[in-house]
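Fold this sequence, please.
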Amino acid sequence: MERRSLLALGVGLGAVALAGRPTPTEAAAKLSAGDVAAGRRLFAAGAYKQLDEVLPLLLATAARSTDQGPASAARAADVWALASQLAVKHGRTEAAGAYAQRAGAAARRSGDPVVLALAARAAATPLRRTGHTGEALHLLTEARAHLTTSSRPTPAELEAAGMAALTAAYTAALAHLPTTACDFAAQAEESTHRLTRHPHPAGTWELTADQCALYRIGIHRHLGEVDAALAAARRLRPEHLPTAERRARAATDTARALLAAGDVAGAFAQLRLVEVAAPLEASRPSVCALTARVAGLRPGLPGLSDYARRTTVSLL
């Protein structure tokens, strides 16, 4: 198959350029920025089944790209980080950790602090899920420090620093470290404010005030501050979040906060929004568990039985 870019030939929100196993010739091809961007678009759209189909080829190409110079190593790190994030969506913590290790190794070869921060964020989830919260916080703190040494960081460095701080804040909240969590969240909000001073088209950046509000929902809920979590949910404008995956995450986190507040019907209303934003998000193991909790508390809610039947189909 003749190709310069494996996925850029047609991968969009509803189409996949390739399916099936890679051939040796394809796997030897050079990883392009278009390949990585196309894979990222699938993830952002919540098109996890389609991403599952093309990821083996991306990974095979990434494995051959790590030693092809800093730019190729950076693209390889992005692919390994993407694979780690997808494994998290499927509930595969061990695989997520293995992919994150590969991402970190490639990021170090790239020497790019923005890429190192991406790899640190990918590593944080499997680390905290396996009881290594301290290591996750160390990686994120170190990554952010590399990005903030300059008195005039670039927009990309500001954004990466802010997203690393948000991930660190959430990680600290899971470990019940309220001061650390709030400090990191404040740092992210400061980076967000500084980023707004740079002219940019709408939807350009991942780090926004709404992204910070989204993280605040989970941060405050894990700290036992349900009222603050719900206040953050009210501040959030889901329609301003840049991707379907983020909008689904906002609805999921809001559902959890509402459930913690005893509003079971409200939690189910948010679960419906998860399915609207990104149907496969509603079928993730953790979201299915949330649906089961709602059903256990209020099995007679109108529409709940049909919703549960639709969304408990395995992603795999």
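The first helix runs from residue 24 to 27. Confidence is low (pLDDT under 50) at residues 1-28.
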